Amino acid sequence: MGEISPGHLLPSSRAAGSRSAPARRLRAAVIGAGMAGILSAIRLRERGIDTVVFEKGDRVGGTWRENTYPGLACDVAAHWYTYSFARNPGWDRLMAPGPQIRDYFERVARQYGVLEHIRFGEEVTGLRYDEGRWQLSTAAGFVDQFDVVIVATGVLHHPNVPRIEGEESFRGAIFHSARWDHAVPLDGKRIGVVGTGSTAAQLVTALVPRAEHFCLFQRTPQWVMHRPNPEYTAEEKAAFRADPEALARHVQELRTKTVEGYATAVIDYDSPELARIEQLCQENLETVRDPELRRKLTPDYRAACKRLVMSDGFYEAIQQPNAELVTAPIKRIEPEGVRTADGALHPLDLLVLATGFQVDRFIRPTKVIGRGGVDLDQVWADGPNAYLSVSVPDFPNLFLVNGPGSPFGNFSAIETSEYQADYVMHLIDGLIRDDYREISASHDALERFERERQEAGAKTVWVTGCDSWYLDKKGVPTSWTFSYQRFVDEMTSPRITDFERVQ
Ligand code: NAP
Questions:
Q1: Which atom of ligand 1 is found nearest the CA of 409?
Q2: Comparing C-alpha atoms, which of 360, 396, 388, 359 is closest to residue 494?
Q3: Angle formed at CA 112 by CA 107 and CA 118, multiple of 5 degrees
Q4: DSSP alpha helices (H): ranges in 322-410?
Q5: Which class for 96: exposed (0-12), middle (13-18), buried (19 or more C-beta within 10 A)?
Q6: Ligand 1 nearest-atom number relative to CA 76
Q7: Residue 216 CB–ligand 1 contact under 6 Å
Q8: At 74, which helix (H) or strand (E)?
Q9: Mean pLDDT, the chain, as a whole number?
Q10: Which pLDDT value is given to residue 259?
């Protein structure tokens, strides 16, 4: 661990762009110092753009800084979940634990000179486009002006915290999975977890062995795919270190498996790839020995309709004698624990809400006012969207990385963000060359894109009868609904005519 080496995966077109002395000096603000913010700052600084990163936290790492729960890991293969330009031959396992990923982002931010350009503890509260520049203001009262803004505020950021009657009367501890209180003891305690998503599955696996008694409060069962997490041997790591081409081939293998399997499955519910995923999940479910427990854990919707949970320990953990799957709905919280609708009281010392995130917030609650006083809150009143997920009409020179409509899911968000960042840099290169002073997606382009994206959504697995964070309030998929190849093609060949350019 701890080493970073140049990567070789990406097509050369992705690194393209003007590296010559800028014709027009630009100042850029990046909002957020997580994976996408660090990446954006690196790309901007490569172009000689004066860049300030605003981060409301006190460290880099985004989701990997905020989530510190026991068992935290990334179920996307570590070598694929790595910047293409900063490979890490030393990953210990196929999938990396959260703290190692956070350390990786810190190392990259330091080595690429991003750290000294971050204003920590600085929450951006306002952005207003005025006379060709963005006026940025922060909660601490800092005000500055920028030519370009990149929004890298993440999607899984604002915790979804359900209000449960009687919560304040609870004598134990209660918190959301992304707000872990490490002062609360776990060993030998009575622990409850609400939720059955990817977070809960990792929590169950980590906490059942430590708890005296463990309750999983399940509203909806999830399909779980068995995913072992083998270690890389010392020889493999040495080979990756010695031969970046060997590492690049390995990344390509990991990538191909997901892109050809999962990416095809989710966009076509009739595909053999989805049938294969269903079969694997079914086989995994059949490892649950007690038929009654198996029945309770069996979803009534198709696999991958919700984000596929990957685990090598969830079913084993929930079958332990000290673990209990509670399917009766939660009625209220009482001083001693959780009362369910069947009248049972589940005594607890700790209740963890692994209840997910409000995924439609993106940059908000920051007040963003674009050209002509257009308010982003109003533009996004029915839900957020952006042309190809990177640009919103009337918000010139403001770009999103990992924005609405991105290929969320069991992909490498690093790879998709790199494609988006390079696309954004292509547009920014035009600003540097002074081809135009302002650029934002045209209304026509966004309308066409959204129409096609929603039409394609009708064939996805996400609309086959489950509720998930992949759907908006009207049941329309919020993610990329086309093929992954189309994403790559769109990102690597920008159509400048889809943008409104002002001289
Ligand atoms: P999630 O997938 O949105 O799951 C939330 C869970 O909480 C669901 O089981 C939901 O039940 C339940 N829930 C929500 N409100 C509830 C309420 N009021 N009462 C009872 N149950 C309630 O959230 P998550 O597990 O935190 O995962 C979010 C995303 O984070 C994932 O989809 C993934 O993209 C990412 N993630 C990734 C990894 C990784 O390894 N790469 C790990 C963790 C998380 P219903 O199903 O009934 O709504």
A1: 34
A2: 388
A3: 85
A4: 376-379
A5: buried
A6: 41
A7: no
A8: none
A9: 94
A10: 87
Give the model confidence (pLDDT) of 168-214 as tens digits.
Answer: 999 999 999 999 999 999 999 999 999 999 999 999 999 999 999 99
Ligand 1 within 6 A of CB of 220: yes
Q: Residue 416's pLDDT is what?
A: 97
pLDDT of 2 reads 55
Only one residue has tokens 């290929």, namely: 407
What is the mean predicted confidence (pLDDT) over 444-451?
A: 98
Cα of 197 vs centre of ligand 1, distance in Å, is 4
| C-alpha torsion 467→471→473→475, nearest 10 | -80
Atom 8 (ligand 1) nearest CA: 195
Listed as own residue / partner, the contacts of 278-285 with beta carbons closer than 8 Å and 24 or more positions apart are 278/223, 278/302, 278/303, 278/304, 280/225, 280/226, 281/223, 281/224, 281/225, 281/308, 283/226, 284/224, 284/225, 284/226, 284/315, 285/223, 285/224, 285/315
Q: How do residues 95-123 score in pLDDT, each as one tens digit?
A: 999 999 999 999 999 999 999 999 999 99
- Spatial neighbors of 227 by CB under 8 A, at least 6 apart, are 75, 95, 310, 311, 312
**Which of 219, 311, 467, 472 best tests ligand 1's pocket when mutated (most atoms within 8 Å of CB)?**
219
Q: Answer yes or no: is pLDDT of 11 > 90.
A: no
pLDDT mean over 45-72: 97
Tell me if 224 sits within 8 A of 315, measured CB to CB: yes
Please state the atom number of ligand 1 nearest to the C-alpha of residue 95.
40
Residue 410, pLDDT score: 76
**Phi and psi of 57, rounded to 5°?**
-80, -175
Within 8 A by CB and 6+ apart from 253, the residues are none
Structure tokens at 194: 């609400």
C-alpha 26 chain-centroid distance: 29
Averaged pLDDT for residues 37-52: 97
Q: Is the pLDDT of residue 339 over 50?
A: yes
How many Å lie between the centroid of ligand 1 and the Cα of residue 253? 29
**pLDDT given for residue 274 in this prediction:** 96
pLDDT at 19 over 60: no
Compute the distance between CA of residue 376 and CA of residue 367 in angstroms, rounded to an integer.
7
Find how far residue 134's CA is from the centre of its chain: 26
Q: Which pairs from 325-330 meet CB under 8 Å and 24+ separation?
A: 325/216, 325/218, 325/293, 325/296, 325/297, 326/215, 326/216, 326/217, 326/218, 327/218, 327/296, 329/219, 330/164, 330/194, 330/217
Q: Any residues with CB less than 8 A from the CB of 103 and at least 6 apart, and which? A: 1, 2
